[in-house]
């Protein structure tokens, strides 16, 4: 259970953020929530979960570590150029990021904020995930249509697996037997067997699939269809498309709540006409039950283990919106770096370093890689 945050605690947290050159915009409880991000109450939203929210700031070449209990950025890690995605390991002791500039995956110790090691990937790495047992990391390489499997203990690539055209988002099954990969150019989801590191199937799903989410019971797969303004559902027993549900414009990332009851879909729109919402989908009826204004270019989504709050990166607004899922309202906004994209929640509380900005790698220049513009 999260602790109740009074105005006094929020004031101290915000003061600490300002001292670090950051600001935190807090709203009141759901009856007074203002999606502009301005404070409308003297009491912050209560029962915030503990843990760390990790954010990849692709334009800034940095990672932000947010204390989930206070909504405060406690550390900014620099030196990983073009980090499109970030992923906390299952035990929370390490966090992974990909560099689209240097074609590598980096693993960072979350207790010391030091680089544990790097591993080479394919061209233009997009997303990274870690299997539930923590032994293998998988990285999609959007530039060459492959997935790199990395031995975590050795920090060594052990396999390069052909996927589809433009592999982007990926997630493992709850039992760790499979990894599901959304192929933006091919209209399919590739299924990789982790025991052999081989592709065992391609599932046709629709136009421009970007990211996947696996139901906690492992029975269903959800896929954002950026080219159809929809989310698809796949029966994993038959590996067949069951249907689609209309969401907002240009959906990108999707996350399912731990109880499997709801999906949260970020609707990014386009660079010319950014989307500003997330859609909340009831998985039983497979219909949208709520739409929340989160900010310009809603992109990444993570949900805390209690299933009460979603964290949404807004790439054009440069912040993270915290959404109370029961109230369907933004309850806080946390400014981070330029072009925040990937986001991940860890139940491990963050370390609070004396110096909030930490160089974890030597910077090699401007990031960017070969990621398609509308995937940023």
N-end to C-end Cα span: 34 Å
Taken as a percent bin, the fraction of beta residues is: over 45%
Number of strands: 30
Radius of gyration: 19 Å
Describe the structure.
The chain is 3% helix and 49% strand. The two termini are 34 Å apart. A hairpin with a 5-residue loop joins strand 5 (86-88) and strand 6. It has one helix and 30 strands. The protein has a five-stranded antiparallel sheet, with no helix packed on it. A five-stranded mixed sheet has the order 29-2-3-4-30. Residues 1-44 and 365-373 have low confidence and may be disordered.
Topology of helices and strands:
Blueprint: H1 7-19, E1 25-26, E2 52-57, E3 62-67, E4 72-78, E5 86-88, E6 94-99, E7 104-109, E8 114-120, E9 125-130, E10 136-141, E11 146-151, E12 156-162, E13 167-172, E14 178-183, E15 188-193, E16 198-204, E17 209-214, E18 220-225, E19 230-235, E20 240-246, E21 251-256, E22 262-269, E23 274-282, E24 287-293, E25 298-303, E26 309-314, E27 319-324, E28 329-335, E29 340-346, E30 357-359
Parallel strand pairs: 4-30
Antiparallel strand pairs: 1-28, 2-3, 2-29, 3-4, 5-6, 6-7, 7-8, 9-10, 10-11, 11-12, 13-14, 14-15, 15-16, 17-18, 18-19, 19-20, 21-22, 22-23, 23-24, 25-26, 26-27, 27-28
Descriptive key words:
disordered N terminus, five-stranded mixed β-sheet, 30 strands, single chain, mainly beta
């Amino acid at each position: 259970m999260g602790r109740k945050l009074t105005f006094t605690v929020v004031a101290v947290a915000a003061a600490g953020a300002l001292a670090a050159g950051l600001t935190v915009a807090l709203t009141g409880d759901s009856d007074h929530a203002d999606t502009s991000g301005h404070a409308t109450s003297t009491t912050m939203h209560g029962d915030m979960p503990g843990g760390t929210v990790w954010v990849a700031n692709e334009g800034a070449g940095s990672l932000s570590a947010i204390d989930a209990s206070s909504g405060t950025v406690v550390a900014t890690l620099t030196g990983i150029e073009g980090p499109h995605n970030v992923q906390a390991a299952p035990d929370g002791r390490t966090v992974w990021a990909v560099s689209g500039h240097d074609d590598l995956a980096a693993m960072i110790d979350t207790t010391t904020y030091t680089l544990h090691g790097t591993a080479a990937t394919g061209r233009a790495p997009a997303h990274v995930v870690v299997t539930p047992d923590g032994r293998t990391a998988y990285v999609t390489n959007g530039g060459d249509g492959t997935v790199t499997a990395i031995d975590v203990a050795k920090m060594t690539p052990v396999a390069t697996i052909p996927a589809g055209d433009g592999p982007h988002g990926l997630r493992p099954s709850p039992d760790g037997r499979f990894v599901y990969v959304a192929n933006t150019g091919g209209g399919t989801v590739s299924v990789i067997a982790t025991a052999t590191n081989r592709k065992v199937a391609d599932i046709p799903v629709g136009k421009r699939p970007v990211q996947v989410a696996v139901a906690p019971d492992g029975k269903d797969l959800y896929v954002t269809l950026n080219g159809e303004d929809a989310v698809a559902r796949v029966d994993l027993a038959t590996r067949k498309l069951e249907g689609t549900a209309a969401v907002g414009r240009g959906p990108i990332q999707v996350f399912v709540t731990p109880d499997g009851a709801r999906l949260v879909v970020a609707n990014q729109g386009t660079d010319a006409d950014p989307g500003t919402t997330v859609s909340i989908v009831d998985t039983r009826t497979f219909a949208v039950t709520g739409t929340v204004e989160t900010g310009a270019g809603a992109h990444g989504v993570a949900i805390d283990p209690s299933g009460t709050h979603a964290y949404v990166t807004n790439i054009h607004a440069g912040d993270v919106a915290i959404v109370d899922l029961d109230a369907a309202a933004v309850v806080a906004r946390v400014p981070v770096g330029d072009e925040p994209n990937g986001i991940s929640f860890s139940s491990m509380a963050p370390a609070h370093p004396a110096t909030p900005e930490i160089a974890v790698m030597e910077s090699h220049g401007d990031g960017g890689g070969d990621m398609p513009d509308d995937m940023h």
